[in-house]
């Protein structure tokens, strides 16, 4: 077994630039949502094509994440991190300058492709840079807070930019973010020399994984627009199942798999991927419903709507840095993740009581604080555990799986909860004689019906965390084995009794 690597002296400065890049990627998932109505009006985008502004990004991002993670392992994470940043900034600039629908959609797809290279590079750089337990806890606490709170922050920034400048700045804003992060990364980010994977790229795995994930994400998108029983929706889900099953078979047989099965079959990591993906389903739907509720029902401006999410961000930062990071080395991950998801479910449960005249201070504010605290506490140990004990040569693809579970979860959440809300809204209106004056009451009834599902999903996330995850506190040093080392060279977290 090799000696623990000497920590790099500029690792905390490096964390700032890695976290900045992660913030940019997470922001982009929600910032464009706020700007979309203005962009649609400006460019004359049809209602049928409107969803593609979001879908083009999520398809490219979700479909290419595993490939991006493996390229990072092979070509070097610092290199792919910088390339990802430059490409993301370039694609954002093209999108901001778009003169027609095609140019904007192409730019969004390009953003997603470079995001798929950037996101796993960022998380895996963190995993190989911080190997000492207490430092790792602090670093992942900061990273987890950004990953959790960035989406809500995107709503604030999107509102400010759209209201006071114009929608194009929701894309242009990525350019300075990326420039600062890339310059900083070149100067201070250090990658251990022995952490690369020198194997050849698994082309059949790349094709099957990419097509399978794209089919899955697009299937949920079509379910939202065409319905769950539509032929194209069912066809996409069947294709996704066949392609991903084929991918699993191929990965078990090839010499140098894109996703080594040891990464996903390890009990703790499987629990993290599953519980995190489910939790994100609930959270993404909530962002959407609360945004609609505050803007359409309550009449908030985009900026006021964004600011209304600040308590959730504060809760996430507190849960991640003050609870998760402080307890991670002493408490088994399931005792942070399980209760964390339950606290978030409690906050979600409060929001099932949403009415047209609900008070922000009495209902939405405390619910958001609980949601933020719970998710922040759970996210932090989850992100660390997903890359804990992984061979350095697999850090990129293990990181990509975290992002993939979140990305697929977000796509499912948006489609599933939107469909439930729309169905409940229609049923309520019909049962009340179809009176158009009651449209707000019907919409809020639909949101509440969908939020009940989110409560159940978060409760299942908690149960999975308690059941699957049996790692002890993430203490000690995570020893980096050589890039060609065997599985046994890397310590596996101790089992808590």
What report would you give on this structure?
- With 497 residues, the protein is mostly helical.
- The protein has two domains: 11-191 and 258-474, MFS general substrate transporter like domains (Growth Hormone, Chain: A); 202-257.
- Helix content is 77%, strand content 0%.
- It is built from 17 helices and no strands.
- Helix 1 (11-43) runs antiparallel to helix 2 and helix 8 (203-226) runs antiparallel to helix 9.
- The chain starts with 10 loop residues before the first helix and ends in a 29-residue tail after the last helix.
- The model is unreliable at 476-497 (pLDDT under 50).
Unreliable segments of 5+ consecutive residues: 476-497
Regarding quaternary structure, how should these chains be classified?
single chain
Radius of gyration from the CA trace?
22 Å
What about the largest sheet?
A: none
- Cα-to-Cα separation, first versus last residue: 26 Å
Helix content: over 70%
Net shape = globular
Count of distinct structural domains:
2
Total count of helical runs of at least 4 residues: 17
What is the N-to-C succession of helices and strands?
HHHHHHHHHHHHHHHHH
| Computed structural class | mainly alpha
CATH topology of the largest domain: Growth Hormone, Chain: A
Which band does the percent of strand residues land in? under 5%
Q: From the coordinates shown, what is the CATH architecture of the largest domain?
A: Up-down Bundle
Mean pLDDT: 84
Count of strand segments: 0
CATH superfamily of the largest domain: MFS general substrate transporter like domains
In the CATH hierarchy, what is the class of the largest domain?
A: Mainly Alpha
């Amino acid at each position: 077994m090799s000696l623990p690597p000497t920590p790099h002296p500029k690792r905390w400065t490096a964390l700032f630039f890695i976290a900045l890049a992660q913030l940019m990627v997470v922001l982009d998932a929600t910032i464009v949502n706020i700007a979309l109505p203005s962009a649609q009006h400006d460019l004359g985008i049809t209602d049928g094509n409107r969803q593609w502004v979001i879908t083009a990004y999520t398809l490219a991002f979700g479909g290419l994440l595993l490939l991006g993670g493996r390229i990072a392992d092979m070509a070097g994470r610092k290199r792919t991190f910088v390339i990802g940043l430059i490409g993301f900034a370039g694609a954002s600039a093209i999108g901001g300058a778009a003169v027609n629908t095609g140019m904007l959609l192409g730019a969004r797809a390009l953003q997603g492709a470079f995001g798929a290279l950037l996101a796993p590079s960022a998380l895996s750089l963190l995993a190989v840079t911080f190997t000492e337990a207490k430092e790792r806890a602090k670093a992942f606490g900061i990273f987890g807070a950004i990953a959790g709170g960035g989406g809500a922050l995107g709503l604030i920034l999107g509102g400010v930019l759209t209201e006071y400048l114009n929608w194009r700045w929701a894309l242009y804003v990525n350019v300075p973010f990326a420039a600062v992060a890339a310059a900083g990364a070149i100067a201070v980010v250090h990658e251990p020399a022995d952490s690369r994977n020198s194997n050849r790229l698994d082309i059949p795995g790349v094709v099957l994984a990419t097509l399978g994930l794209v089919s899955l994400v697009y299937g949920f998108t079509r379910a939202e627009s065409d319905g769950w029983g539509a032929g194209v929706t069912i066809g996409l889900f069947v294709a996704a199942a066949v392609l991903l099953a084929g991918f699993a078979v191929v990965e078990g047989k090839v010499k140098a798999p894109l996703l080594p099965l040891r990464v996903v079959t390890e009990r703790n990591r499987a629990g993290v991927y599953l519980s995190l993906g489910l939790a994100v389903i609930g959270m993404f739907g909530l962002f959407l419903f609360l945004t609609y509720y505050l803007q359409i029902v309550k009449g908030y401006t985009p900026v006021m709507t964004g600011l209304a999410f600040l308590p959730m961000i504060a809760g996430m930062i507190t849960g991640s840095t003050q609870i998760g990071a402080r307890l991670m080395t002493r408490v088994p991950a399931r005792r942070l993740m399980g209760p964390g998801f339950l606290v978030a479910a409690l906050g979600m449960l409060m929001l099932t009581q949403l009415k047209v005249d609900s008070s922000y201070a009495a209902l939405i504010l405390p619910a958001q604080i609980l949601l933020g605290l719970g998710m922040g506490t759970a996210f932090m140990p989850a992100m660390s555990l997903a890359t804990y004990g992984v061979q350095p040569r697999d850090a990129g693809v293990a990181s990509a799986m975290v992002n993939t579970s979140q990305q697929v979860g977000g796509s499912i959440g948006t489609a599933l909860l939107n469909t439930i809300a729309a169905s409940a809204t229609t049923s309520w209106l019909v049962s009340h004689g179809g009176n158009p004056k009651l449209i707000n009451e019907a919409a809020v009834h639909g949101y509440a019906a969908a939020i009940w599902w989110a409560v159940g999903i978060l409760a299942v996330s908690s149960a999975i965390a308690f059941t699957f995850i049996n790692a002890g506190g993430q203490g000690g040093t995570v020893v980096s084995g050589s890039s060609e080392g065997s599985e046994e060279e890397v310590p596996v977290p101790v089992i808590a009794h």
